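We treat protein structure as text, and this decision shapes the records that our systems exchange. We quote a single record here, exactly as it is kept in our systems:
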Amino acid sequence: MSRILCPECGTKISDKATKCPHCGFQSADPKRPISEQDKYEMVPIFEYDIEEWQPNRGDLSIISYEDNRSLIQYFGKWENIKVKLPAIAEVIGAMAGKDHIMVAKMDSYVKDLIDKGIYRFTIDKQGEILPTIRDADGFVKQVRLEDMTLTPNLTQSLNNLSTHAVMAQILDEIEYVGDAIREIHVELQNDRLAMAEGARDKLMQARLIQDAKLREAAMLNVIHSATDAKRVLMRNFSQNMYHITEHSKKSDFQMMLDFKGEKDVNRKAIDAFQALVYITNSVQTECEGYAMLGEYEPCKECLEEFKSFILENKLNDRDTLLLLNENSSQKRIEVVDKFTDIAARITAFDPTERIDYTVHSLLTAEHENGGEPDEQE
């Protein structure tokens, strides 16, 4: 037995069925199967495997030949090492320089006599000590000399190098933690945006389902996903907006001193702009989903919730959007203009009116030149 799609509602039915169990559709002759009298489509069957894409990345190498050659060319010059790595250059220089001296060998008895002044070293005309000893009567004593090599004391140099290494490690750890925090922030923001994008993708897929029951179930799932994404983004936007507003109350002198806070506000302003666009898209997904189901009352509720969000965050005031744009390094005046238009339409929305044909236009940003509407960025 094969299965076909009902010509009326698209529900999957048997090719021997004389009546659709879902919508009650019958052909001209109720005693004969629908498939023998009306045009219909077969239920699609996909007979192929979905293969996972696993690109071959090749063997991983710790350091490439080109990088290794560049390092040798750069650090092969002593002048570069002294400029870029002074602590290491100091230790290498100290270890490379060794002093050679001649040391007089004498027993403890002779040393004691020298200490008492009975024996003394001979002094030449330049005032330097000669390796000969004279007693009080002027008799010369010979002293054996021993060649010695003195290794310089590297304790201070090694301590300096150790301090440099520890400080470099600490700074590297601090930078690593900062990078990790920034990566977590980016990942969280991407997760929030991906929820909204996922809901919109589900909507585009669900509307193509031909089975009425499956389409209705899928559409409800789409709406729930869009609501979850919308609320997460709304909470994040409100928090960022509060932080930006508090920062804007600081004096110019305080802002100059708070460089880290300035960078943080810039990041929050960019996130807020992104959230604003995706919140609008999520509300649009909710409303379009309910409209496809023919349920316009919950659609009105979605618009009312969006209206409350706009009023609570003063997004119907253009100055609020300009404040976001002012604190963002990515100037998005086109987003300010388009959302100002959307906010005006939403706040003017009357829930007592019919919205059968106005749902799409309420939440669609229009071109600045008044042309055809386009989708949110």
